[in-house]
């Protein structure tokens, strides 16, 4: 009965408002363009989705308003390809809300108050490639939650409260390439079974959780992963086999953790790694051959390691392709031994500000290179 009523209303509206008259029904504070089929509403007082817009619109952007739910009026806009309802007051998404949105490709519901989603929430979104749920209050993901999203490429679940992940929560996401799970309540790296459902995953964000450690072979099924972000994940330990299987990894961020030493053995398996961030950890020394095996490394960030005191001779001996080295804001770094950066023929940029360096060894750098050296705010005598 409700569906008949909705269809009747839509038919009445369609007969009253032709596309050429749709501009007259544009809500205050919104811009409605019937040529581009775009409706964009600025910050305002809208608390429900407009019901009398041109039913042919393709892009609907209503950010920073007071909308509390996505009601049945969304069904009037079956031609939508882009929907942005970020920074509203959404608390729930009724089941089958998007059942008629067969053309939607991007859905942005970030920074709302959504607390629960299920395997019926996203029914109908078979064309969606980007779903943004960042900054909500989701705490659990159950089996098959995202199964209707057959074509999804990017899924952002960062800044939620997720502490429970069913091993089959991401089943069906075989085209997923980017997954954000950062800044949640995870206490361990998700079960490897979860990653088996996403064989094409290229970028994974797990930082700002309380992982403490990375269990052996945690990422072994992510053969195509090129970027792994573990910044601020409370890591105290990385095992020798933590990064097993990540032969294609290019970017790794382990900064802002509690690592007492550089996990040299674990890192040595990342033979294609090009960018590595290890700053803001607790190690005191960068030992000789600390990054052995990383022959493709081009960028190294070791900034803000407040306990770092020494960089040993030939510390980066195996990193002959290094181009950029950041050793800034290491307040206790008082000694960098001669030859510590020897053999780095491609080194072009070195940042060492501010530290506690008082002496710069004459053969510290391969001076034949054109090296840009930043040494300000050091007590060099």
Automatic annotation (TrEMBL):
<feature type="signal peptide">
    <location>
        <begin position="1"/>
        <end position="22"/>
    </location>
</feature>
<dbReference type="GO" id="GO:0035147">
    <property type="term" value="P:branch fusion, open tracheal system"/>
</dbReference>
<protein>
    <submittedName>
        <fullName>GL24567</fullName>
    </submittedName>
</protein>
<keyword id="KW-0677">Repeat</keyword>
<dbReference type="GO" id="GO:0008045">
    <property type="term" value="P:motor neuron axon guidance"/>
</dbReference>
<keyword id="KW-0433">Leucine-rich repeat</keyword>
<dbReference type="GO" id="GO:0007436">
    <property type="term" value="P:larval salivary gland morphogenesis"/>
</dbReference>
<dbReference type="InterPro" id="IPR032675">
    <property type="entry name" value="LRR_dom_sf"/>
</dbReference>
<dbReference type="InterPro" id="IPR001611">
    <property type="entry name" value="Leu-rich_rpt"/>
</dbReference>
<keyword id="KW-0732">Signal</keyword>
<dbReference type="InterPro" id="IPR003591">
    <property type="entry name" value="Leu-rich_rpt_typical-subtyp"/>
</dbReference>
<dbReference type="Pfam" id="PF13855">
    <property type="entry name" value="LRR_8"/>
</dbReference>
């Amino acid at each position: 009965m409700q569906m008949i009523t909705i269809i009747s209303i839509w038919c009445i509206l369609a007969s009253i408002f032709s596309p050429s008259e749709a501009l007259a029904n544009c809500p205050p504070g919104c811009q409605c363009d019937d040529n581009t089929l775009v409706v964009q509403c600025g910050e305002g007082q809208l608390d429900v989705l407009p019901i009398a817009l041109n039913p042919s619109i393709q892009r609907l952007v209503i950010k920073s308003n007071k909308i509390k739910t996505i009601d049945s009026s969304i069904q009037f806009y079956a031609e939508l390809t882009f929907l942005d309802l970020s920074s509203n007051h959404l608390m729930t998404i009724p089941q089958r809300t998007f059942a008629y949105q067969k053309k939607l490709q991007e859905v942005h519901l970030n920074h709302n108050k959504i607390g629960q989603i299920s395997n019926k929430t996203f029914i109908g979104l078979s064309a969606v490639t980007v779903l943004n749920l960042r900054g909500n209050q989701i705490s659990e993901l159950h089996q098959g939650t995202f199964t209707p999203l057959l074509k999804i490429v990017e899924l952002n679940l960062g800044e939620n409260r997720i502490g429970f992940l069913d091993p089959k929560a991401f089943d069906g996401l075989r085209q997923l390439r980017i997954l954000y799970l950062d800044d949640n309540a995870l206490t361990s790296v998700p079960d490897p079974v979860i990653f088996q459902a996403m064989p094409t995953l290229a970028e994974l964000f797990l930082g700002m959780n309380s992982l403490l450690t990375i269990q052996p072979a945690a990422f072994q099924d992510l053969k195509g992963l090129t970027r792994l972000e573990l910044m601020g994940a409370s890591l105290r330990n990385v095992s020798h086999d933590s990064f097993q299987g990540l032969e294609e990894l290019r970017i790794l961020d382990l900064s802002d953790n509690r690592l007492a030493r550089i996990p040299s053995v674990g890192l040595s398996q990342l033979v294609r790694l090009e960018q590595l961030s290890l700053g803001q950890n607790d190690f005191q020394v960068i030992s000789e051959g600390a990054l052995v095996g990383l022959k493709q490394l081009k960028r190294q960030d070791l900034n803000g390691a407040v306990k770092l005191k020494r960089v040993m001779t030939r510390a980066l001996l195996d990193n002959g392709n290094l181009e950029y080295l950041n050793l800034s804001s290491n307040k206790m770094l008082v000694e960098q031994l001669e030859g510590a950066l020897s053999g780095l023929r491609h080194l072009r940029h070195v940042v060492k500000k501010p530290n506690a360096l008082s002496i710069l060894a004459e053969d510290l750098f391969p001076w034949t290179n054109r090296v840009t050296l930043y040494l300000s705010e050091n007590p060099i005598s």
